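Final report, results section. Input specification for complex C-07:
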Amino acid sequence: MLSGLRRLAALAIAGTVVVSACSSSAATGEPGGPDGTMGPGAPAECVTGSITISGSTAMQPLVAAAARQYASACAGATIVVNGGGSGTGLSQVAQGAVQIGNSDVTAQSKMATPEADELVDHVVAKQGWIVVTNKDVTITNLTTQQNVDIWTGKITNWKDVGGPDLPIILIFRPQSSGTRATFKKLVLGGATEAAGGQTLTGDSNGTVTQAVSKTDGAVSVIGFAYYDDPANKPLLNGLQLDGVDATIANMTTGTYKLSAEGHMYTLGEPSGLTKAFLDYMLGDYVQHTLIPSLSYAPIA
Amino acid sequence: MTHATANQRLIGLRARPGLRDRIDLPRRIVFAAAASTIVLVALLLIFISWQGIALFVRDGYAVTDVLSPVWDPLAEGRPQFGLLPFIGGTIAVTGLALLFSTPLSVGLALFLSEVAPGWARAIVQPALEIFVGIPSVVWGWLGITILVPFLADISPRQISLSLPVVGQVFSMPGFLTGFSWLAGSLVLAVMILPTITSITYDSLRAVPQELRTGSLALGTTRWQTIRHILLPAALPGILTAVVLGMTRAAGEALAVQMVIGNAPVLPAAVTQPVTTLTSQITLDMGNTVFGEPWQDALWTMSLILLALSMASVVLVRVINRRRAVA
Amino acid sequence: MTAPARSLKESTSRAVLVDRVATSALWLTGAFVLLLLGSIVLHFLLAAWGVVSPGFILSDPSDEALGGVLPVLWNSVYMLVLVMLISVPVGILGGIYMAEYAPQNAVTGAIRFAQEAIGSVPSIVVGLFGMIVFVNTFRWGFTALGGALALTFFNLPLMTRLAEQALRGVPAEERSASLALGASKWQTIRHVVLPLAIPGLITAVILTAGRVFGEAAVLLFTSGIGTPYHYDFANLSLTDPASPWSPFRPATTLSVYIWKLNSEGLGAHVREVVDGSAAVLIALVFFFNLGARGIGRLLTKRLTAS
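Structure output:
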């Protein structure tokens, strides 16, 4: 009877070995990077070490892709990228639990000044957002003033801005999110948003996409990287802002104003692998190949 | 003691405990293992309470500030952290879920215990156990992919009921996006169904068979037996089940947050988005910075949740203590 | 006494009618729940049909193609093993105390209260507690170890309780017989009671494992939300954060992965991956529960005289 148990245990161990053996062979099939290349993505020189990055989920795809490229070119460098939100990133880097904290907004806007001043800001990209509506709403452009009127609840029907006769359903992002803060600052100019009634708060790009695509008259703001994804674009009606298209080119030049910088914060000046990775993020490959391919805009 | 073990020395005819027995290391070890539970709970209570009162102690808010219905952390000047929308939302969503789930669960428990033949029980009971095992993220995923679009599809913009003479009886906004109080309550109702059912079933099974046979011998029907004998006898167990189901519903975070709409307003209509303590914490925790007032408000919300669950434990004990007296 | 309002015959037939209606209602309830569960299982079977395959389970996530869930599945299993390693021994020892030694005093009452209390605490609160202690105060950041310790908070009292029940299930005659033969209390426990309780203990382990496996709220705040792209299983280091064998690294599990994909999933196949992941999760939990019953029964038959 004990031999029965031992047999079971042996099987379990064997099973684990088989799984790991299989996975090593499956690994060779995985792509090297979003554009499939590996050579041009290699950094100029390799620094060894191990760092952890956490923070903004909007920046996570970009930083994770860059980290993968760096690590695959440099054995001995381990870069772990996590999400958790901009607030988490800032908290953890301020406490020393991670080496880099990603944030969609400046540290000063979320933290008290003494703590925020200890963090060093490295801007690595620009991320854009776009106002989207349900496909039933046939307009193609909203001016800043129209946005203000809609989001503060002054205008409640699409026909008042040249659209069909449909009530406007506002879908907000969480108040704590960088998206909402940025939109409020850059487009609404700090105006007080409508509350209650026909409003909804969608926590994530996924929820918002679903809500907007299925609700007549719905309007919301989503990240450009998310909107540009071929799975999502056909579901939504993306609007121009003040007649300017939401494109990476326009974000780079600054003519499209709903964009903000993506920050990578360190506690004090960085060194070692942290510094090397930050330099890599500002290097040519990341800025001009990786960033545009993921629908961000470069800084350099 | 009239016999001696290897650890004891026989002195005369009486055995005296040796050193190993006096220290009784095994007993101390297992006691430590069991008592660690107390330590864990104490740690939990201490840490959460410590963080939970930071809003009042460190940031200078008053208790009356959090008892307001205005939640506006981005307000110019002083951010407003009124927690009533969340407390109200938790109560509302949990209450409606219990309303849906309790009759169904008690009915199912009665079915399994009194009515079902062996083959039916053999199918339904494992089914219930599968129910229990389904993780909450999966319930949330089901809610967001099936329930929410369904509600969005069937709903008119405005739901109203007018009677010929009386006129309009009521009118309320329709589901629109589908994310709503009702969606949250339905998902929760399905989640707590197995909890309430299994505890009710256990308490029905615990009622002595003599009560049933005695009642039937008097010529009652089975339903009369159930209604007048069994249910009252099992009442403490049923109440316990309901309280535990309520606790589980109130504490559920992910599944609720995915379907409920998260509008930080007091609950008004079942078709409208509402918010709960748990969903707001899930929403905002990652975006706020540790030590800042916004996050302190979230910790206060967790403290409220903790207090709610402790209160339910006490409530369950009170319910069952009464039975011992009666 | 006034004449009864209805004749005996009327009352009886009315009662019989009510009984029939009630019985049908109860049958309907049973059928409804079965239907509900059946449709959920069917939904997942259908949704996962084209998605779940050995390839899905064993390959890495991918941005372009459908990809798989190997790293997150590994993390789920890893986390489970870690939690069990900590909580099973301590839980069994605690159960031994509660079943064999505990007197009816205030401390025992406090332990019981603590068990009930932790059973009621919302998992998100436990996750937040884990965040304060392990992620913030200890400055570990997101780690598998932090997640496992937070899950132990949940699991340990439950394990203790179930172990106690398993031990109480051993007949008293066995204990008396052993003591009568001259064994000490601890010897009795070690050589007589524990072996007889093994079926119940294993059932307890598997049941708690099923619960741990599906847990997401706790891990969201303690072991992080990332998407591991590839694990190098040849790296056997226990401290290197790149090694999948190390507990000192963020570990996104299958449940958390579902949550993450629902929030921020990019790519054409998000819905399929989530459906597939959910199906895998349910299937595993289902097998845990079935396994608990089955193995428990098997072991009872083989290890005891019955």
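Chain A has twelve helices and twelve strands. The CA atoms of residues 205 and 222 of chain A lie 6 Å apart. This concludes the modelling results for the funded period.
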